[in-house]
Structures are given as C-alpha cells and as structure tokens.
Specification:
Length: 175
C-alpha cells in the first residue's frame, strides 16, 4: 500500500499530464488520491509546494530512467546517441506527454521563482549530462538543444520522426 504522500504525487502526475497545472485543483488531487485534507496539508503547504515536490520527484525518476537505459553503453558517444533512443522509449511509455518541466513552465508566471528555479535546475542538469560526456562545450550544447527540441516536437506531433532525424545529425556531428 502506498503512503498518502506517494498517492498524492502519483495522482498529481496523472492530473498534471491530463489537464495541466493550472486546471488541476488541490480538492481534485485530495479526492482522487483518496487522502484526507489534513494529510495533504501535512506534506504540502500549497499547490506551489506540491508542484516543487512533484518536479523534484520527476527529476529523480527521469534521470534514474535515463541512467538505467544507458547503463549498458560503454563509451560517451554511445551514451549520447542512445539518449535519443531513450526519448523514443519514454514517448512509448508515457504516450508523448512531453517534458513535465516545460509543460509546467508554459503555465506559470515567470515571476514564480520557486517553481522556475526547479525547472531551470533540471535543465541545467540535463545540459551538464551532455557536457560531462564530451570535452567540447559547443558540441555538447548543440546536442542538448537538439535533444530538447526533439522532446517538444515529438510531443507536438505525437511522432518520433524528428528524434530519429536528430539522432542521425548527432551521429554525424560526433564522427
């Protein structure tokens, strides 16, 4: 049996994915997670605090999945190229839901620094992921930008086509 906090986070993921951050209310989360209102407020002071926790959990999950997916790869080049296969894998697993961080970014005011800083931190970690695999900052940033745009385009068109094209471009760039 999952704890109330785990049920809240899981329900939040489902609701944010289905209807977005702004259209999801605390009462709906409490109801669908089947937790008491007091339990919700025991863990989270506000919807904003819940969103920060959700994004932190999502960050750990996403990077855990990425690292597990790439664990069999021996060299940096293979890890980078197969990171694009990871996007295809996640699209299959999550039905092209896109990036939780960018989805929420599109719904919050830019002065919401509490949530914005978590999103920026996630993206900085992803950029660093590529940077640590290469000794070429310009090339790693180029790959990062292709990776990011692949996520958005695949969500928009519900297709892996541009992920596959980006993977070919990256393969050629790294030769």
């Amino acid at each position: 049996m999952k704890s109330p906090k785990e049920r809240i986070i899981e329900t939040t993921f489902q609701l944010f994915a289905r209807q977005g951050y702004n259209s999801t209310g605390i009462n709906q989360i409490i109801s669908e997670a089947e937790v008491a209102r007091a339990s919700f407020y025991q863990y989270f002071k506000s919807k904003e605090d819940l969103c920060v926790e959700f994004l932190n959990v999502r960050h750990e999950y996403w990077f855990g999945e990425l690292n597990t997916f790439l664990a069999k790869e021996k060299d940096s080049k293979s890890k980078i190229i197969n990171a694009f296969d990871f996007l295809v894998y996640m699209n299959g697993k999550e039905n092209f839901r896109g990036c939780s961080f960018l989805n929420i970014l599109s719904e919050i005011p830019m002065d919401n620094t509490k949530i914005l800083s978590v999103i920026q931190s996630h993206k900085a970690d992803l950029r660093n992921f590529f940077s640590e695999l290469l000794n070429d900052e310009e090339l790693s940033d180029h790959i990062y930008m292709l990776f990011e745009s692949s996520i958005i385009e695949s969500q928009l068109f519900k297709s892996n086509e541009l992920i596959e094209k980006s993977k070919k471009i990256v393969t050629n760039l790294m030769q």
